[in-house]
Design a protein that fits this description.
The protein has about 260 residues and is mainly alpha-helical. It is globular, with a radius of gyration of 20 Å. The chain folds into two domains: about 190 residues, MFS general substrate transporter like domains (Growth Hormone, Chain: A), CATH 1.20.1250.20; about 50 residues, no CATH class. The protein contains nine helices and no strands.
Amino acid sequence: MKKIFSGEAFEVMRIRNFRLFMIYRFMMTTAALMQSVVVGWLLYNITHNVLSLGMIGLTEVIPQVSIALFAGHFVDIWDRKKIIFYTTSLLLLSSIILVVYSLPNLHLQTLLGIWPIFVTIFITGLSRGVLMPANAALLGQLVPRRLLTGAATWNSTTWQVGAVTGPALGGLVYGFFGILPALMLVMGLFLACTVMLLFIPNQGRVVIPEGSEEGIFPRMKEGIHYVFNNQVLLGAFALDMFAVLIGVAVAFFVPVRQLGPS
C-alpha cells in the first residue's frame, strides 16, 4: 500500500480512515444525484407535467439552504461522525420509502398520489444541508493539518467523479431496467454508505475552550460578517453560485424542451 501511495499527492491516501471516507463520499454523491435523475423521471411519468420537475428542485433547495447555517453551528459542537451517520440513515430511509412507493403490487401511486415523492425529496434536501458542513468538518479531523490541502483536493475530485457517475448511472439503469431496479440500486448505495461509516472510528467532539461558547445566532452573524468582509471568500462563493445556477439552467432547459408540452 505504501508503494502505491508513495508520491506527495498520494501521501494522504495512506491514512485508512481517509480512504474509507473517500469511498463513502463517492457512493453518497453517486446515490444522491442518481436518485435526483430517477425521481425526476418517475414524477414526470406520473404527472406528464414539466412544471413538476421544477418543483422537485424547489422542494429540495428550500430545506437545504434553510438549515445550512444552523447545521454549521451544531457541527462545531457535536460529534461529527454521529451527525453524518444519523443523516445518512435518514437518506437510506427516504430511499426505502421510494422503493416501497414504486412497488407495482401495492398501487401506492394511485392511492397516495405524488406526495410521498415530495416528502422524500424534502427529507433529502434537509439531510444534504446537514451533510455538507458535517463532511467538510469531519475531513479536518481525519487527516493532519499539513495534509489538509491534499485531502481537500481528493475530496473535491471524488465529488466530481460521483457527480458525473450518479446521473449517468441513474439514466442507464432506469433506461435498461426500469424505475424499481434504479431505486433499489440507490437504496443499496445508501445502505453501503451507512455500513461504511461503521468502519470509521468516532473522532469525538472538538474541544471548545471555556469562556468561548457563543449562542447560535451570534455565531451565525459572525460567520456571515466574516464572509462579506473577506473579498476572496465572497468572490469564490459568488462565482460558484452563478456557475451552478447558469449551468443547471442550461442543462435543464434542453431535455425539458425536448419533452414537449404536458
